Amino acid sequence: MSSFDRLRVVLVATRNPLNMGAAARAMSNFGFPRLRVVNPYHVAFREARSAVGASHVLASAEDYQSVAEAVGDCTLVVGTTAVGRRTLQHPLRRLEYGARLIRKQLRTSHVALLFGSEKSGLSNEAFSHCHWLLHIPTSQENISMNLGQAVAVCLYELARDGKATPDLPRGIQKQSGASAAEVERITALLQEAMVASGYLKRKPTSDAEQRLRRLVRRLKLPAGDVGAWLGILRQILWKLRN
């Protein structure tokens, strides 16, 4: 499998099918075939006329109801943002540096690269599923890019040094990180434990779930530890409830 096959470009709540077509065309231009969409505004995006030469990318796009489902098989989830006046709770990396980290992860596991709607970008809830955020350096006079352009710029940066990070040689195994779906299961159990212990009543916050999700992702749990963490949390819950 090519490392480019391991990247999932995820368009979240995209409103304009022409922008989706332009994003698909950029994916085809640079050799990234895996498109996923979360709650697209228009259902007719698969026939977008802007997807010149990339109809196969749209035809094979996977449709999801939530970000959690769309990134479930990925060990690294990266959101994109123009920043603007937003207060961010994640590490923010410029494109040229972030692309190097993504290429390195693609050598061994799946990565999700998230793009938000044209109107408002990614929501805070979508951000909570991300490990860190990616920023394209633009002029402060106009920081927001067209969706298709943003996808093209990011994928060009990923592709231009692709030969610098080949797959690992056969026989060399690198321990992979926990998938987003596994991390989400740990997050859910930890939240149950917080409720059962009364912690959330003692320190209530309106965004407790998003904070907890960010906290767990910062741990960078390896896949081999998932079973142990799930077992520990289930035992804690059993004790709290009995």
The secondary-structure element order is: EHEHEHEEHEHEHHHHH
Task: Sum up the overall morphology in one term.
Answer: globular
The strand order across the widest sheet is 3-2-1-6-4-7-5
Distance between the termini: 48 Å
Report the sheet with the most strands, covering strand number, pairing sense and barrel closure: 7 strands, parallel
Specify Rg, calculated over alpha carbons.
19 Å
Number of strands: 7
- Overall structural class, as computed from helix and strand content, comes to alpha/beta
**Beta strand %:** 5-15%
The low-confidence runs, each spanning 5 or more residues with pLDDT under 50, are: none
Structure description:
With about 240 residues, the chain is of the alpha/beta class. The protein has helices spanning about 15-30, 55-60, 65-70, 95-105, 125, 145-160, 180-195, 200, 210-220, 225-240, and strands at about 5-10, 35-40, 60-65, 75-80, 90-95, 110-115, 130-135. The protein has a 7-stranded parallel sheet. Helix 2 links the parallel strand 2 and strand 3. It is globular and about 60 Å long.
List key phrases describing it:
single chain; 242 residues; alpha/beta; 7-stranded parallel beta sheet; 10 helices; 42% helix
List the helices and strands and how they pair.
Elements: E1 7-12, H1 17-30, E2 35-38, H2 55-59, E3 62-64, H3 67-70, E4 76-80, E5 92-94, H4 95-106, E6 111-115, H5 124-127, E7 132-135, H6 147-160, H7 180-197, H8 199-202, H9 208-218, H10 226-241
Brief digest:
The chain is 42% helix and 12% strand. The protein is built from ten helices and seven strands. Helix 1 (17-30) links the parallel strand 1 (7-12) and strand 2 (35-38).
